[in-house]
Amino acid sequence: MTQATTAAEAGGIRRGQLLAILIVTTGVGILAMNMVLPSLPTMAREFDATYGAVQYVLTMFLFAQAFGQLVYGSLSDRFGRRPVMIVGLVIFVAGSLINAFAWNLPMLLIGRVIQGAGGCCGLVLGRAILRDLFDRDKSASMLAFVTMSMVVAPMVGPALGGLFQETVGWRAGMLLLVVTGAAVLVLVFLRLPETHLNRGESSGFTHLLRAAGHLLSNPLFLFYCGIMAFTSATFFAFLGGAPYITIELMGRGPGEFGLWAMTMAVGYIAGNYVTGRYATALGTRRMMRLGTVIGVIGGIIVVGFAVYGPAVPLALFAPMMIVTFSNGLVMASAVSSAVSVRPDLAGAAAGLSGTIQIGTGAVTTILVGAMHDGTSLPTTAMVLLAAALALVCFLAASRYPDPTDAPIH
User: Fold this and answer.
1) Is residue 406 part of a domain?
2) How far apart are alpha carbons 175 and 384 in whole angstroms?
3) C-alpha closest to that of 81 among 28, 123, 45, 34
4) pLDDT of 171
């Protein structure tokens, strides 16, 4: 009897139901991340702050996600995935409640930190759970289908946030996250089985440092993390500047921005679909090679349209779909590869790689804000730079033998 079968039978849950739980636990954190984007210009006016200052509503959330993943992954190796997931969701609900009643920008930022720290639990533990149950290539394929399905969150998030902003306000959106988070918490408490059946004896900060030391001393792990980080940075760079470009420079409303933001998810869905269909047959490295090359091509087109194209949303979002398509090709394979370098430390690897990935995204949003010059060029140039760095990391990783990778003929 396999570990996957044991876990499923112990919890009385089928694989499809388990994947559904992973979708909603991961999706709620993503929904919280980008639901606020259409409201950033309004928040700047409400709190009498600059757009650069309000942009920290996204940045602080990302930093909290980055460091939260590091803790969750390591703790789940010791205590199991299920109890750590429950604690994370409780934290998420508390942070969402603070956000709904924040009376100034500092209080909102505090709430976003708590919300981000809690909301990332599904992101990191979902990866670890899939790696508990499946081998490397199969987990990449399964993860691709999960991320393709949960892409409903980034599709719905900006559109829903724009709708709230234009009707009852962004605080009502935060209350919706409180209710949603509580519902997901109940679902996890009642239905999620434990999948990590061979937990270690060590725990706490010492275990965290020891696991991180093993992983950070492995060059292949670092290059896989680099692929993840810079691929994601293309998306976060765009998120950092797109609301200002669309709403302030192009004069479109928050609701329209939300609808245009949904187009990015179309490319990501397509890329994940290709990965889900072909990752097992072609191998993870081939998928990453194809995705990073397409990402650079897409980045060049994005910059070209920013410089020479018309100042309309289509010229901004259509080429970005190429980049998000490349993200879909790369991310599942890069995640699966990173957590497979040391399968015995899958939770810590998922957490540490997620920390590097989201932390890089947070730094990217800061850089976009610092380079803000009232045009779309800083945002689009950062997209291209991040895509190029992802390709560099892949080329470096490909120089190392990878015994866990599928043969490439």
Assistant:
1) no
2) 36
3) 123
4) 94
CATH number, domain containing residue 309: 1.20.1250.20
Instruction: Output 184-191 pairs: Cβ under 8 A, ≥24 positions apart.
Output: 184/24, 184/25, 184/28, 184/89, 185/86, 185/89, 185/90, 185/93, 187/21, 187/24, 188/21, 188/25, 188/82, 188/85, 188/86, 188/89, 189/86, 191/11, 191/13, 191/17, 191/21
Closest CA to 368 of 227, 173, 238: 238
Number of domains composing the chain: 1
Q: Indicate whether 404 belongs to any domain.
A: no
Query: What element of type H or E holds 100?
Result: helix 81-100
Q: Provide the domain limits for residue 106.
A: 3-397
pLDDT at 208: 67
Asked if residue 407 belongs to a domain, the reply is no
Identify whether 405 is part of a domain.
Answer: no
Q: For residue 381, count other CB atoms closer than 10 A to its CB.
A: 18
Q: Which residues of the chain have pLDDT under 50?
A: 1-11, 202, 403, 405-409
